[in-house]
Amino acid sequence: MKNKYIHIYRDIVEKIRNKTIKPQSTLPSEHELMEVYETSRETIRKALNVLAQNGFIQKVQGKGSIVLDSDKIDFPVSGLVTFKELAKNMGQTYRTIVQFLDVTHPSDELMSKLDLEPSDEVWRVFRIREIDDEKVILDKDFIKRDYVETLTREVCENSIYEYIENELGMLISFAKKEIIVEEPSEEDREHLDLEGFSNIVVVKNFVYLEDASLFQYTESRHRPDKFRFVDFARRMK
């Protein structure tokens, strides 16, 4: 069969997706796979390499090929996508819980991040994001009140960006992002279903309007097993 390794790759992917092969289990050895698929070691290695490149397995020296969780949601690093858009596109059941919403004067740290004065006002919105009844994201939004004068819990439960673009008529253009991994805080443990996870993925966003005005700083704290942060990269010479 031409490109037999592709057939083997697709067969193993199907078994991973339908849970015949469980996440965190180990694939059979190369020799065992050679017998199962009646093919050469080179063909098996090609199939395993494609599985690794596409995020289905992780090769661990001394342990073999560990199966990764294929149910992770692809979170585009270079795009500006809302939680509502992301969850709807993935066909997941979702809910946003507004932890609190208020207007405050900025701290020293926030003044530095958003280029504010002590007398300026910002909206402070903390929201818990549920996917399939699991609390997996804590979003902490800080929005300059000069740009968004009014904000309600109903808007925050639905989509702030939808409100800004459709109701206020402003165009959200781009963001600078920083992604780090750190230990969960007490706040994270209180509000997220961490299930013993010892780290979280933190995405910090500095969000700008069409005229390049910085209007929002957001810190999104993600449970690590539910998301895969992806991007498209093109080599430039």
Automatic annotation (TrEMBL):
<dbReference type="Pfam" id="PF00392">
    <property type="entry name" value="GntR"/>
</dbReference>
<keyword id="KW-0805">Transcription regulation</keyword>
<dbReference type="InterPro" id="IPR028978">
    <property type="entry name" value="Chorismate_lyase_/UTRA_dom_sf"/>
</dbReference>
<dbReference type="InterPro" id="IPR011663">
    <property type="entry name" value="UTRA"/>
</dbReference>
<dbReference type="GO" id="GO:0045892">
    <property type="term" value="P:negative regulation of DNA-templated transcription"/>
</dbReference>
<dbReference type="Pfam" id="PF07702">
    <property type="entry name" value="UTRA"/>
</dbReference>
<protein>
    <recommendedName>
        <fullName>Trehalose operon repressor</fullName>
    </recommendedName>
</protein>
<dbReference type="InterPro" id="IPR036390">
    <property type="entry name" value="WH_DNA-bd_sf"/>
</dbReference>
<dbReference type="InterPro" id="IPR000524">
    <property type="entry name" value="Tscrpt_reg_HTH_GntR"/>
</dbReference>
<keyword id="KW-0804">Transcription</keyword>
<dbReference type="GO" id="GO:0003677">
    <property type="term" value="F:DNA binding"/>
</dbReference>
<dbReference type="InterPro" id="IPR012770">
    <property type="entry name" value="TreR"/>
</dbReference>
<keyword id="KW-0678">Repressor</keyword>
<dbReference type="GO" id="GO:0003700">
    <property type="term" value="F:DNA-binding transcription factor activity"/>
</dbReference>
<dbReference type="InterPro" id="IPR050679">
    <property type="entry name" value="Bact_HTH_transcr_reg"/>
</dbReference>
<dbReference type="InterPro" id="IPR036388">
    <property type="entry name" value="WH-like_DNA-bd_sf"/>
</dbReference>
<feature type="domain" description="HTH gntR-type">
    <location>
        <begin position="2"/>
        <end position="70"/>
    </location>
</feature>
<keyword id="KW-0238">DNA-binding</keyword>
